[in-house]
Design a protein that fits this description.
402 residues; Aspartate Aminotransferase, domain 2; single chain; 15% strand; 7-stranded mixed beta sheet; alpha/beta; 4-stranded antiparallel beta sheet
């Protein structure tokens, strides 16, 4: 008799609801002929954003050189371009040997944690978080410990609470700046305080900077690597967001700080990189052109630019609502919107998101998807055109009134 095939126990506690039940229901509705406005994922190509022409040409021109496996860390021109970016930021102890190219930052998050963690080791992760970080810690035998970045602090880290969570099992701290899902951009003093804690307790700093430079108004992005001197720092970035090339699947992590004391760890990471042979080769040819060329993002995030104006549409929609509240996002491509529980005491983010999808054909991500203990928030992307966002908020208001 055939027996049931069960899932691994390692998947307990792992979730990625951004592509979960709601997204699956949205796909079913699309197959039935409904037009769904998908606000749940930051995928620029779906909203008409194009990868810069120079990057596409670099990939096309180097296709004949892309048919073989490359070095497990990535092609040299791509890694050297990352080194030059870090040097421009004042980080001088990085060489191409300290840079790993991956199939997006997602793969590198998994590999860097797998090389670091033993069973039961703890990693400090922001709450709200990008849930892949929590999932990867769990999948690699660790324990995700969430430090609060609460709405009342404008989603900035609660430094006192963070310090109180450090134990003798804590191995690393994750910083996501600019933040997904909240759009918070951390100031220099906050980052320096977090670095001081990491150095005091010998914690590895993992800085997810995939939205570096994607900031609005007077917000300023500070890379963290120049601040880290006395512990290991891994800086993550890639082509998917700033350069609108999600499908290229190209990300990187560069290590700085105490690289000499982390030789064993970096060799272990090199072993894991070797086991998957290499990352996507054609897309890597776009890295040098991307980092060294014209930064077209700057035009998009200034007044009059498409991302800026779409963000303004979100701000207008929240301000016009009788039920919503929001800390305006200072960066990234998302808004984390809250429902006023005084006016809507029974609001539940999952129920709201499903009703919005079923009745108004708009897909958003419930806030509880991002490892928070409150259920009155939801995340949406600012990628659509402003007029589409205006329509989305009209539909949201209909559901809230009902």
């Amino acid at each position: 008799m055939s027996s049931k095939v069960n899932t691994s126990d390692n998947l307990r506690g792992v979730r990625y609801e951004i592509r979960g039940q709601l997204a699956q229901r949205a796909h079913e509705m699309e197959r039935q002929g409904y037009e769904i406005i998908s606000m749940n994922i930051g995928n620029p190509g779906l909203f008409g954003f194009r990868t810069p022409e120079t990057m596409r040409m670099a990939m096309i021109e180097n296709l004949p050189s892309s048919e073989a496996y490359c070095h497990q860390k990535g092609i040299f021109p791509a890694r050297e371009a990352v080194v030059m970016q870090q040097q421009d930021r004042g980080v001088m102890n990085v060489t191409a040997e300290h840079v790993f190219i991956g199939n997006g930052v997602s793969e590198l998050i998994d590999l860097t944690l797998r090389a670091l963690l033993n069973d039961g080791d703890e990693v400090l992760i922001p709450s709200p978080d990008y849930p892949l970080w929590t999932a990867s810690v769990i999948l690699n035998g660790g324990k995700a410990v969430h430090y609060p970045c609460p709405p009342e602090k404008k989603f900035q880290p609660d430094l006192d609470a963070l310090a109180g969570l450090i134990t003798d099992r804590t191995r690393a701290i994750v910083i996501i700046n600019p933040n997904n899902p909240t759009g918070a951009v951390y100031g220099r003093e906050v980052l320096e305080a977090m670095v001081a804690l990491a150095e005091k307790h010998n914690l590895v700093v993992f800085s997810d900077e995939i939205y570096d430079g994607m900031v609005y108004d007077d917000a300023e992005f500070f890379p963290i690597a120049p601040m880290v001197k006395n512990t290991l720092c891994g800086t993550f970035s890639g082509l998917s967001k700033v350069y609108r090339a999600c499908g290229f699947r190209v990300g990187w992590v560069s290590f700085s700080g105490t690289n000499e004391l982390a030789k064993d760890y970096l060799q272990g990471l090199d072993l894991l990189a070797s086991l998957r042979l290499c990352s996507n080769v054609p897309g890597q040819w776009g890295v040098q052109t991307a980092l060294g060329g014209y930064q077209s993002l700057k035009k998009l995030v200034r007044p009059g630019g498409r991302l800026y104006e779409s963000r303004q549409a979100v701000i207008r929609g929240v301000e016009a609502s009788n039920y919503l509240t929001m800390v305006p996002p200072g960066g990234a491509m998302y808004a984390f919107v809250g429902a006023d529980t005084d006016k809507l005491p029974d609001f539940d983010d999952q129920d709201f998101a499903m009703e919005l999808l079923q009745t108004q054909h708009v897909l958003v991500a419930p806030g509880s998807s991002f490892n928070v203990d409150y259920r009155n928030y939801f995340r949406l992307t600012v990628l659509p055109e402003a007029q589409i966002i205006d329509e989305v908020f009209r539909r949201i208001e209909k559901v809230l009134r009902s």
